Amino acid sequence: MGDPQVRRATVADIPAMAAVLARAFARDPFFSYLAGDAPERNLRMRMGWAGILRHASAGLRETWTTGDVAGVAVWLPPGRGASSLLDSLRMVGAMARLAGWGRLREVSSATELMERRRRTHVPVPHWYLSALGVDPGRQGQGIGSALLNRILDDADATGAPAYLETATARNVLLYERHRFEVVEELILPGTDVRGWLMLRAPLASAGPSDGATPGHPGPTGSG
């Protein structure tokens, strides 16, 4: 069997992709912290992911999925921010639906910390993996690797680094197989959520990348 075929996502894919990401991140420590233990947690997760896909994905420009939407990778390319000003305002409502209005400031502080650390670790134009998730029933079939390689091959060709965060130790091994290296391990203040910040240098033979430093990403880790 060959590698899974991936394609660019469209707006019509958003409901299915949000459902896949909600299932993929159901046990993720960071999203467990965001969504809490409310009875409507699954609904909150789906609504939150739908908001991220609509308003924090640079217009789905480099969001990739499979033909049957079994996995999703939300990439932000060099020189492109996650959101316009209007989309950033819309994301406030999406994050409130995910975490609750009462925790919005706390959650915003956590995501702002991650953004500051990203700018410290990779102050040059880079690819940012905002989210990677595969439907639990389809994991182990090479879908995650196919979604990664679709952009990492381009990153090597243009000499651009790539960066991500994950709150799951198991995922660190996956990303290390794709030449990401841990550049920092931290615990989010006021929580027990551990995060691994990972950077992938381009192949030595690649030339310099082009573009401006991206803006604020969607408030997600990688799964």
Structure explained in plain terms:
With 223 residues, the protein is an alpha+beta fold. It has one domain (6-200): Gcn5-related N-acetyltransferase (GNAT) (Aminopeptidase, 3-Layer(aba) Sandwich), CATH 3.40.630.30. 41% of the residues lie in helices and 18% in strands. It has 7 helices and 7 strands; from the N terminus they run E-H-H-H-E-E-H-H-E-H-E-H-E-E. It has helices at 14-24, 29-35, 41-55, 85-99, 104-121, 143-158, 169-177; strands at residues 6-8, 62-66, 71-76, 127-134, 162-166, 181-187, 194-200. A 7-stranded mixed β-sheet has the order 1-2-3-4-5-7-6, with helices on both faces. A hairpin with a 4-residue loop joins strand 2 and strand 3 (71-76). Helix 1 packs across helix 3 (41-55) and helix 3 (41-55) packs antiparallel against helix 4 (85-99). The two termini are 24 Å apart.
Tell me the strand order in the biggest sheet: 1-2-3-4-5-7-6
According to CATH, the homologous superfamily is: Gcn5-related N-acetyltransferase (GNAT)
Number of strands: 7
Residue windows where pLDDT falls under 50 for at least 5 positions? 83-87, 205-223
Helical fraction equals 40-55%
Rg: 16 Å
Largest sheet at a glance? 7 strands, mixed
Instruction: Briefly note the CATH topology name.
Output: Aminopeptidase
